[in-house]
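Let us begin with a simple case.
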Amino acid sequence: MSSDTVDDAGVYLLDEESALVFTTDFFTPVVDDARDFGRIAAANAVSDVYAMGGSPLIGVNIVCFPDGDLPPELLAEILLGSREKMDEAGAAVVGGHSVSDRELKFGLAVIGKVAPERLVRNSGAAEGDVLVLTKPIGTGVMTTALKNEALDPEGLARVTAVMSELNRSASAAMVEAAADAATDVTGFGLLGHAVGMAKAGGVTLELDVASVPLIEGAMDAISAGYRAGGLFSNQHYYRKFTKVKSRADALLLELLNDPQTSGGLLVALPEDRVEVFAAAYAEAGGERYWRIGRVLPRGEKPVVLV
């Protein structure tokens, strides 16, 4: 598969009936609890496979660990959390590799499978498609608040639940609904990933800012001044691809650039397939999704905020 559209994962065609999906991701801790960090890292690592319509098969741990500075029991908890989430995804952990580093980092390399006819790329969004999002945003500002000891236990529980949730149900639903395009929302923020989808498909995505869901507490965090460094770099880079018509609160517009950890899927599908998506999503165990925009013919900018 060509890398021209900067898709979420690499896909290697084995034969007419099967293909492999390859991806990797790892990062520094976003929560203090070691087992939760392992769960989040695993959910994040397999997300790219789900974004392509695939199913994860195996994972290999990637560990950077500060020997002598942290107890080995902490690493054991991270690995247990990761294993729990990979078990939930139906994928086997088959080993890994570790290096000594001054800063703790953890993640996985993942291989999945997909039938070629079920493959969903980021480049297929078509005029008239509806845009749906399957997780609320705000993980970046909330985990930044946590690092500054400014996030209460309830807020921590909410953001941890969002980051730990697999995108499996959303993936199954979009495949059942024959979605035209999809991408998972991670470090480039909702706006950045929307720009990527629009550019890959040669269309414009119109996002209804007021319809974008926020994790409860995200607006409080950004209002208090907590912003991840990636928010500023996303904002600086993606503004040139964006036309702003919206009169939404400036902080809400900022949150569109908030870098997400293990965010949801942004899916483009025909209007007459939305009910199919909704039914399949519910049947697969999904709870909520949000309609946040539509696909327009390519205009002046890849993304328009209304």
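The second case is a distinct protein. As before, the sequence precedes its structure tokens.
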Amino acid sequence: MQVADGRTVAWTDWGDGGTPVLRIPGTPGSRWSIRADRTIWRERGLRVITTERPGFGASTRLPGRKFAEHADDLAAILDHLGIERLHVYGGSGASPHILAFCARHPDRVKAATILVGGAPMNEDEIEQMIGLNVQSYKLARAGDLDGLRKLMAPYHEAMSTDPLASLRGVMAEAPEEDQRIMQDPDWQRGMERATKEAMRQGPEGWMDEGLAISLPWDDIDLSAVRTSITWWHAPGDKNCPLSAAQRLVDQLPDAHLNVWEGGGHLTSYLREAEVLDELLARG
């Protein structure tokens, strides 16, 4: 659909007539960031709406964007679908977008869940991440846009043509459980389709998002996030250290951190049934 400023925003809508749930993808993600095997959703009678941020897939790029813009896009999508309130969840780079939506449109969210979400980091925490994230964070914080563009261009090309091979390279330092998940055929099918679509417009949308996440989240009023939030994290996550997630959760008025005993950034793929049952029990 077209929003007020003329941009196109896109989403997928699976399971008409079920309980509506808003699923916000990580980074880079698209409206096709959905499970290839959707048995878990079907068993719970869900209608899952998966959105897409500016610059990814079919959604018009918005240079300089942060988080408020997409939060308002989400509200516009729900207005279009005639949905007043629903549960919201998502992982990784979805975290600031979920928080912005909860802050700006609190009446639309019954309860929210964040899975191994990104969080503002200090210099020591940046050094604990996978190599690509370390490099991109440092370039973004230094304001070196040319350097960031040169860094991201070959990764974009690789992820556009063979996202599975590219991700295995990017995630080479990830924990063993992440490596096992990346061998799952259903996970591979879903990831490949979602990533190719996310990369369709070029690397700029990915860069826009990386800049927003790496720099201060100054357009999110954390004190206004009154929604009940459960934040699940893994001690071995190499995309966002646990200490950064804990510090962010501590700033939220009604949030609880659950730490899995093991695993890494992709652990939520195996735990989605548990995650959904906990989320749907709130709100």
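The domain at 11-280 is CATH 3.40.50.1820 (Rossmann fold). The chain has a mean pLDDT of 94.
Keep these points in mind for the review questions at the end of the chapter.
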